[in-house]
Amino acid sequence: MAEKNKMHPQGESLFFRRLPQEMRDHIWTQLFCSTRFTFGLWEGPDSRDCKRIKPTPSGLAMLRTCRRAQLEIGDSWLRHVLFCFQDTKSMMDRLSVLPADTLSKLRHLRVSDNALLELGDPDDGRYYLLTSYFKLLPGLQLDQLTVLGARLFPLSYDTLDDLIKDGNGWKTLHYISHSSKMLGFASGYGPYGPGLGGNPQYCRKSQPKHWQGVLEDRDGVASGPSTTIYRAKELAQYGSILDPNKRVIFEQKLHCGQDLQPNEFHEDPQLMSGDEKKKELMVVVKRGTGVKYEERDSPLIEWDLRRDFPNMTWEEIFDHYLQEPGYPPYAEEEERKKKAFILPIQEDFYKDVDEYVWSGYHLDEGY
Fold this sequence. Notes:
Elements (H helix, E strand, L loop, with lengths): L13 H5 L2 H13 L2 E7 L8 E4 L6 H5 L1 H7 L8 E4 L2 H8 L4 H4 L4 E5 L17 H5 L7 E7 L4 H14 L3 E8 L11 E2 L2 E2 L14 H11 L6 E7 L14 E4 L18 H4 L8 E6 L18 H4 L5 H9 L8 H10 L4 E3 L12 H4 L4
Parallel strand pairs: 1-3, 2-12, 3-4, 4-5, 5-6
Antiparallel strand pairs: 1-2, 6-11, 7-8, 9-10, 9-11
């Protein structure tokens, strides 16, 4: 049995015999840079459109079919593949159980921002943003974090603002919004809509000037941090924001009247008039040179899971809310859905690892 399981030396293989190690390493890198693993729930505009996405089984085929390749590659693939999560809960379920040593090797992550509102209290506008969840992932030090923004545009703004102000665990952040509304809405909106769940201190500012200032205060001007906003050239060409030829750099002009209070502001006419709101936005945030961005023990932020659930794991935090009678608000509805039908499972098929599809909720004009 021992002889049967012994690794074949592949001595006659031209790939291993003729190609130098440096060339083989380059091939492994190219292979895994074009690979992604996607998990989570994709929601359409109708609950019957929901489906669970799972990674294609061929993602690690090379490691499963060739022992010598597996030995050479080891766990280096973790640094190259893109891990995609369709929702915050799926991200936390998978990453929170990883050892810190493994978590620290991840370099590319994408998550759809739904802010897990069920863990908050909509009656007082209390909810936990992505920043708070990353605080539960010590050791995370991504080269790039990509966030697909929430369907509720004030929530997207709030999340991005929070990530720039208090976020760690990433060197570069790409925050993508399906709508220019994220930078154009007027005062009076809370995260759930006009006048609902609003924070009295909540205020949209002209960007990226404000965010650039926040970042420079964090990292120091000399370290060269940057915040750049890109806006799609065409209406409703979703995904085009990733193409440098189909976007322009955007800087917001001051448009608030002088008679307004500090936390009052009008719609931005450049972004909200007609169909202009249908142009995607992407905010690229780069931390300063030499700044330690690894997620580690850090001061508590305003609404922090670590304060409200001290010394609890992610699993314990979520179980706590599932056990609350009648709360989260739609926990019972979710249980009903699960009993009514089994969600279909679909493999993640893609041509490019960075491509994405907005859910029907995002594109609903009612949001």
